[in-house]
């Protein structure tokens, strides 16, 4: 049997196992080990298994992950998401639809530093949505505003997803992280503009607000200053070459820890919960990365990446169309699978195609993450939509319908970054 | 970055809320003292992983400060980091499994009845148990190989095999966690029939 | 060393692995002489970029030569860039038969090849050829050296062109300039030498240098001159201190199972094309790559060379004296004739 065929069969078996609720990482290891056995030998496959399991976790470039996660857990448990919302509200309350705009802005800001779309969406569901409903905002708009901003957490650094992309492709981690910044901020602005325009067109969505928030401007600044400061130190240190990616994660987590302890926003149980959750999320991500690397070695001997690169090169489609097809694949997978799993499975196959087409690897990292984000919001899985719906009691259908315009805006943002790659590549290329 | 939530919160429109069998329920209804003891052991491993993570954080802060202020970084920080991450990852696997938090695709699962869900749990549990057991065995062999070959880190010359043994420990606990959940699912299935 | 053989013992099925691809329709061997035996395809993995000049100017032609010399029966498939295994795992994966051929540096697995470290001795060899000849002399002379590789079939071994000290922002003119700098080291003996010279050492395989120096994980790196272009380090390098810091050693090894699965005629043909001759060919290629790098690549990227005055060079060499002594003591303690090996090596280097 041709090795490529073994590879395709392996992928099919893997998808079947995943559908039968075998953990994604385990399904990948099964296929990697069995496939390697078939193409090389069973003994060779077994012999490398131990080393791969060990070395797959022992990589300096991956060590940033627990710290990014820890930083996010600490900030979330310190209640900074709520503060970000209350502060932005202070500045935007006069604007029509301002609560929705503030919600998107605050959730973007909070998710950006905390890296957690779920924490962000759940905070906004608890804090912002009740307030919007109290002011007579449309349920769909309220829920969508709470859901959508958080997705950008994976795009604006710090972001574990961008790190994973860098590790999988051997693109420089620091550059990949920084590359997400401009597209992330741009997308956030487009989303806020979308909310604003929606309300302009259909004023019924959001009645005018006459109630001045109780927070003063100084009070707002006092509440929210740690977010930009921690972001600036952690990511600025990375950008200007003072920190390695791991050190930027350590610096961010350490500052968040100090802030939480000194202001007494983190008590012992909140601290314990943050550590506990960090280890859990780290374990799930690393198991997937260990499996992903094993799967990559299997793919290499099947020659599938090489074959894909050549085939796509030969069929001579316009690059636009190819990127479009890749987008559709990610979108379809996004409907059934967690975004980390998609990233780990698909990147080793898609990356060679993109490089063969002459595109920039760092740019494709940004586009990949943006494509994955759209999946967070689409049925039937759309994790964030479940969180928002569950916490607010707004029905899933309403949440999904409310998200449609924002989802389209995300697609526009992807198209913009594809059309103008410099949006992603300029900042990292100026790094030193 | 998202973390799968354990079971999706209910939804009013499709009338019927999703009812998924959770690991917690299985332990409550079918678990014995052994199951509880395993979870306690895994909790301790998880705690140790947390301590390692915080220690690594403080070590790295020391390295950054040493470099920035005294232009004297701590020796061997990078290799210490690589080893510490291995330890914290492997010691965290088991409790993550106990909590059903390893990444799975629940699309089919949540659409099945309780029996179907238990059948999938048994199937996936058997597959995962075999895989993780084999992986544990190979990690053990690798630890022997690291020991025999005298593998160390480059600067501090820390031997690698003890770290591999900690990975074996974590991986064994992971395998046992899978096994215990699978047995509970089998028990639950037997009770239904 | 006998324990390192252990993984190969559960590898009995290795022989028919390599025969399996032969079942596929043969493409380009019209008149295959019978005596070469069945067609095999061997996997060859290494951690270096596919654009490495050694890959394009030595390995790719060499693969053709092997095919021709075996009547088209031995096909070799190269997987560059760590596709089959990351740098620290290439050797072990070859030893256990997870890949058939491996090209790597013994320095990438600290602790595993203590004896081999000496052929990279700092401040010793003027160029790749002299160092390669010395390595083979030691190989022939000392069975203990060969035993370090007893779990594989060694096809060749050679030294790179001399490695110098490169820094991003700070020029290094004296020993004192090294204090407080974090420098990438290619191997354990080099780490000790760097620390003896006052620097902070970071142990790292070559493919990781680019990111580390770009991001300031390291201030500089010790590396073979020719490899600065391989890893595209020109843009992130400001200074080179020409100090003849070390000569990095490579090995090219084959899984014993894969070797045993070849027919005697195939083995003979492959032996013809490997060994010291292949080592010298590679050494020469590294040396000429280094000359090109010095003439074109560094000037193009504004890498400024600092020549070390004789007396400063002597200070550097004296500083690492204790490192040699420690190496000798450690080997002698293990029952390896470290003193004799070092003496022969110093002799060959004209020390
Ligand atoms: Na982020
Ligand atoms: Na989705």
TrEMBL record, chain A:
Domain TRAP C4-dicarboxylate transport system permease DctM subunit: 12-423
Signal peptide (from-to): none
Membrane topology label: Multi-pass membrane protein
Main location: membrane
Gene Ontology molecular function, alphabetical: transmembrane transporter activity
Superkingdom: Bacteria
Pfam families: DctM
Keywords for this protein: Cell inner membrane, Cell membrane, Membrane, Transmembrane, Transmembrane helix
Localization in the cell: Cell inner membrane
Record field: transmembrane: 6-39, 60-80, 100-121, 141-167, 173-199, 220-242, 248-266, 278-300, 320-345, 407-427
GO cellular component: plasma membrane
NCBIfam families the UniProt entry points to: dctM (TIGR00786)
PANTHER family: C4-DICARBOXYLATE TRAP TRANSPORTER LARGE PERMEASE PROTEIN DCTM, SIALIC ACID TRAP TRANSPORTER PERMEASE PROTEIN SIAT-RELATED
Protein name: TRAP transporter large permease subunit
Native species: Phytoactinopolyspora mesophila
UniProtKB/TrEMBL annotation, chain B:
Family (UniProt): Belongs to the TRAP transporter small permease family.
A GO molecular function held by the record: transmembrane transporter activity
Localization: Cell inner membrane
InterPro entries membership: DctQ, TRAP_DctQ
Domain of life: Bacteria
Keyword RNA-binding included in the entry's annotation: no
TM region(s), chain numbering: 37-60, 80-97, 118-140, 160-179
Protein's GO biological process: C4-dicarboxylate transport
Pfam families, per database record: DctQ (PF04290)
GO CC term, one of those recorded: plasma membrane
The Tripartite ATP-independent periplasmic transporters DctQ component domain, residue ranges: 57-186
Keywords (A to Z) from UniProt: Cell inner membrane, Cell membrane, Membrane, Transmembrane, Transmembrane helix, Transport
Species this protein is from: Phytoactinopolyspora mesophila
Protein name (Swiss-Prot/TrEMBL): TRAP transporter small permease subunit
Membrane-topology descriptor: Multi-pass membrane protein
């Amino acid at each position: 049997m041709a090795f490529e065929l073994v590879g395709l069969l392996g992928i099919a078996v893997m998808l079947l196992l995943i559908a039968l609720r075998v953990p994604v990482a385990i399904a990948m290891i099964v296929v990697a080990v069995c496939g390697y056995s078939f193409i090389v030998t069973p003994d060779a496959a077994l012999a490398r298994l131990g080393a791969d399991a060990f070395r797959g976790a022992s990589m300096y470039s991956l060590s940033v992950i627990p710290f990014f996660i820890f930083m996010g857990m600490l900030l979330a448990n310190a209640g900074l998401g709520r503060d970000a919302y209350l502060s932005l509200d202070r500045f935007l309350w006069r604007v029509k639809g301002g609560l929705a705009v503030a919600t998107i802005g605050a959730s973007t800001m909070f998710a950006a530093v905390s890296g957690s779309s779920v924490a962000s969406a759940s905070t906004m569901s608890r804090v912002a949505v009740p307030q919007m409903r109290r002011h007579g905002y449309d349920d769909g708009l309220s829920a969508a505003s709470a859901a959508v901003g958080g997705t950008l957490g994976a795009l604006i650094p710090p972001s574990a997803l961008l790190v994973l992309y860098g590790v999988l492709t051997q693109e420089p981690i620091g550059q990949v992280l920084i590359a997400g910044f401009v597209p992330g901020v741009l997308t956030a602005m487009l989303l806020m503009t979308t909310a604003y325009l929606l309300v302009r067109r259909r004023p019924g969505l959001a009645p005018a607000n006459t109630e001045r928030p109780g927070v003063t401007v100084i009070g707002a600044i006092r509440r929210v200053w740690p977010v930009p400061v921690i972001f600036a130190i952690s990511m600025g240190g990375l950008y200007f070459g003072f920190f390695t990616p791991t050190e930027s994660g350590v610096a961010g987590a350490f500052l968040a820890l100090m802030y939480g302890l000194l202001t007494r926003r983190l008590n012992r149980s909140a601290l314990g919960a943050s550590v506990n959750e960090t280890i859990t999320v780290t374990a799930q991500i690393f198991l997937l990365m260990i499996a992903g690397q094993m799967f990559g070695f299997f793919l290499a001997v099947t020659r599938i990446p090489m074959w894909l690169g050549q085939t796509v090169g030969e069929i001579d489609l316009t690059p636009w169309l190819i990127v479009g097809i890749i987008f559709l694949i990610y979108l379809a997978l996004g409907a059934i699978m967690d975004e980390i799993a998609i990233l780990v499975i698909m990147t080793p196959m898609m990356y060679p195609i993109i490089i063969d087409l002459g595109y920039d690897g760092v740019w494709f990292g940004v586009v990949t993450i943006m494509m994955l984000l759209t999946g967070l919001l689409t049925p039937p899985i759309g994790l964030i939509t479940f969180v928002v719906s569950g916490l607010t009691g707004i029905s899933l259908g309403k949440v999904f319908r409310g998200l449609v315009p924002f989802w389209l805006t995300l697609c526009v943002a992807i198209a913009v970054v594809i059309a103008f790659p410099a949006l992603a590549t300029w900042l990292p290329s100026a790094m030193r | 970055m998202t973390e799968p939530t354990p079971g999706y919160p209910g939804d009013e429109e499709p009338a019927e809320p999703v009812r998924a069998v959770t690991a917690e329920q299985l332990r409550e209804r079918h678990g014995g003292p052994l199951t509880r003891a395993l979870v306690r052991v895994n909790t301790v491993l998880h705690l140790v992983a947390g301590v390692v993570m915080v220690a690594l954080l403080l070590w790295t802060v020391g390295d950054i400060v040493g470099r920035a202020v005294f232009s004297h970084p701590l020796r061997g920080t990078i290799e210490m980091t690589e080893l510490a991450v291995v330890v914290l990852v492997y010691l965290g696997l088991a409790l993550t499994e106990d909590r059903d938090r390893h990444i799975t695709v629940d699309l089919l699962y949540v659409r099945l009845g309780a029996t179907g869900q238990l059948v999938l749990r048994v199937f996936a549990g058997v597959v995962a148990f075999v895989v993780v057991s084999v992986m544990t065995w190979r990690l053990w062999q690798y630890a022997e190989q690291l020991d025999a070959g005298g593998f160390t880190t480059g600067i501090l010359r820390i031997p690698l095999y003890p770290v591999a043994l900690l990975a074996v420990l974590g991986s064994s606990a992971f395998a046992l966690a899978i096994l215990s959940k699978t047995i509970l699912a089998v028990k639950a299935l037997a009770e239904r029939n | 060393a006998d324990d390192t053989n252990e993984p190969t013992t559960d590898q009995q099925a290795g022989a028919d692995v390599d025969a399996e691809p032969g079942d596929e329709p043969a493409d380009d061997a019209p008149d295959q002489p019978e005596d070469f035996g069945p067609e095999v395809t061997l996997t060859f993995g290494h951690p270096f970029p596919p654009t490495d000049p050694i890959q394009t100017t030595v390995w790719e032609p060499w693969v053709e030569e092997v095919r021709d010399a075996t009547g088209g029966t031995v096909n070799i498939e190269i997987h560059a860039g760590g596709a089959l295994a990351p740098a620290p795992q290439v050797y072990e994966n070859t030893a256990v038969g997870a890949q058939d051929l491996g090209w790597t540096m013994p320095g990438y697995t600290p602790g595993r090849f203590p004896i081999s470290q000496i052929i990279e001795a700092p401040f010793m060899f003027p160029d790749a050829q002299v160092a390669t000849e010395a390595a083979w002399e030691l190989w022939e002379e000392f069975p203990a050296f060969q035993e370090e590789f007893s779990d594989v079939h060694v096809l060749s071994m050679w030294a790179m062109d001399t490695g110098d000290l490169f820094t991003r922002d700070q020029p290094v003119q004296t020993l004192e300039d090294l204090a407080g700098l974090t420098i990438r080291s290619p191997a354990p003996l080099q780490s000790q030498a760097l620390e003896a010279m006052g620097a902070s050492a970071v142990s790292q395989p070559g493919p990781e240098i680019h990111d580390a120096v770009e991001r300031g994980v390291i201030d500089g790196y010790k590396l073979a001159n020719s490899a600065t272009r391989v890893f595209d380090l020109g843009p992130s390098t400001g200074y080179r201190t020409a100090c003849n810091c070390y000569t990095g050693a490579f090995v090219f090894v084959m899984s014993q199972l894969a070797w045993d699965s070849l027919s005697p005629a195939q083995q003979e043909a492959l032996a013809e094309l490997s060994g010291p001759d292949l080592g010298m060919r590679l050494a020469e290629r590294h040396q000429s790559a280094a000359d090109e790098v010095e003439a074109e690549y560094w000037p193009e990227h504004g890498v400024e060379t600092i020549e070390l005055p004789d007396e400063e060079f002597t200070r550097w060499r004296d500083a690492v004296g204790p490192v040699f002594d420690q190496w000798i003591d450690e080997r002698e303690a293990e029952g390896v004739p470290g003193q004799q090996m070092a003496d022969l090596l110093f002799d060959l280097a004209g020390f």
